[in-house]
Amino acid sequence: MLIRRPTDIPASEITPRELYLNRRQMMAGAAGLVLAAGSAKGIMAAPLSAAKSPLSATDEKLTSLEDVTHYNNYYEFGVDKTAPAAHAHTLKTSPWTVKVDGLVAKPAEYAVEDLIKNSALEERIYRMRCVEGWSMVIPWVGFPLADLIKRVEPQGSAKYVAFETVYRPPEMPGQQSAFPVLEWPYVEGLRLDEAMHPLTILAVGLYGETLPNQNGAPIRLVVPWKYGFKGIKSITRISFVEKQPATSWNLQAPDEYGFYANVNPDVDHPRWSQKTERRIGEGGLFVKRRPTLPFNGYGEQVAQLYSGMDLRKFY
Ligand code: MTE
C-alpha cells in the first residue's frame, strides 16, 4: 500500500468456481497425495455449509476464486500481490485459538473449530474496495462479529474493539525482516457500534470452503464499507478497550490512513484519487474504471453510524 502507487497489472485468468473445484476433486481422487501434501502444509480446505444471507450483494458478478486467492495483501508474507499465495502455506493454522479479553464480563479463549461449530454460518457476498484503487466481489463465509461480542458481555466502559494478528516470525517471513514494512503484530480496531453492526463479520471461509491461508486463515475480519486494510487477517486476540486503539496503517503513515478508513470517494489519498476503482477480473489496463460509491455502496445501512462527524477530518 505504502510502497508504491497501485499498478494496473493484468487480471489473472478467470477460473469459474465449478471448474476450480472439479479440478481440485479430480486431483484428490487421482492422487490422495495432493491433498495430503496440502494438509501437511496446513492449507487443506474443508467445505463449510452456510445459509445464504439476505445482506449479500447478489447483483454483482463474483470475482474469480483464482483472483481472490492470488491477488492479495498480507505483508507478513511479502509486499507483492502474489507473495501471500506463494508463501502463506508456512503458517500453521491448526490448532488456533482466539483470546477475547479486556472490558468484558466473560473473557474467553475460543478454539476456532468451536467458533465454527457453534455459529450460524452465512454466505455474505460483499463488494470489497482496497485503498489502492481496486475492488473485488467475494462470497465470504462467516458469522456476525456481534454474535461473539454478545457472548462475552462488554462492560459499559468498552467503547472500542482492538484486533491482533498472530505474531510468529518463524512462520511469517515478513516479520523476520530487519527493515519491517509495518510494526508487528498487525493490529486493527473498530468503534464498538461499528463492530456490532450486522454487516461486520468474522470470516472463516470463502467460496464455500475454509479460508485459504493467503486470505487470513483461520479467521479474519470483514467490514465491507471500509477500505480493505481494516480486514485484519489470522486474528488471535480481540480486546475490548476504552480508548481508540492503534491500527497498523495509521501507525505507519498517519497522514495517509486514518482510524475510520470509510470508503469515501470525496477524500483523496494524499498520493492518488479515490474517485474511481478497477474491478479485478474486468479485463486489462484500458477497461473503464468504475466510480467508487460512498461507504462502498453500503451507505444506506451504515451512514447513520457517522451522523454529525466530519468524515474529511475522521478519514
Ligand atoms: N492483515 C494482516 N495481518 N496483514 C496485512 O498485511 N493487509 C490488509 C488486510 N488485512 C493485511 C491484513 C489489506 S491492505 C487488505 S487490502 C486486505 O487484508 C486484503 O485481503 P485479501 O487479500 O483477502 O483480499
Automatic annotation (TrEMBL):
It comes from the Bacteria. Predicted to be exported by the Tat system. The position of the signal peptide cleavage has not been experimentally proven. GO terms for molecular function: metal ion binding; molybdopterin cofactor binding; oxidoreductase activity, acting on a sulfur group of donors, quinone or similar compound as acceptor. It catalyses: L-methionyl-[protein] + a quinone + H2O = L-methionyl-(R)-S-oxide-[protein] + a quinol; L-methionyl-[protein] + a quinone + H2O = L-methionyl-(S)-S-oxide-[protein] + a quinol. Its cofactor is Mo-molybdopterin. Coiled coil: none annotated. PROSITE patterns: TAT (PS51318). GO terms for biological process: protein repair. Keywords: Metal-binding, Molybdenum, Oxidoreductase, Signal. Mo-molybdopterin binds at N72, Y75, E76, C130, T165, N215, R220, G231, I232, K233. InterPro entries: MsrP, OxRdtase_Mopterin-bd_dom, OxRdtase_Mopterin-bd_sf, TAT_signal. Residues 91-249 form the Oxidoreductase molybdopterin-binding domain. Binds 1 Mo-molybdopterin (Mo-MPT) cofactor per subunit. Its EC number is 1.8.5.-. It is an enzyme of class 1 (oxidoreductase). Belongs to the MsrP family. Part of the MsrPQ system that repairs oxidized periplasmic proteins containing methionine sulfoxide residues (Met-O), using respiratory chain electrons. Thus protects these proteins from oxidative-stress damage caused by reactive species of oxygen and chlorine generated by the host defense mechanisms. MsrPQ is essential for the maintenance of envelope integrity under bleach stress, rescuing a wide series of structurally unrelated periplasmic proteins from methionine oxidation. Heterodimer of a catalytic subunit (MsrP) and a heme-binding subunit (MsrQ). This is Protein-methionine-sulfoxide reductase catalytic subunit MsrP.
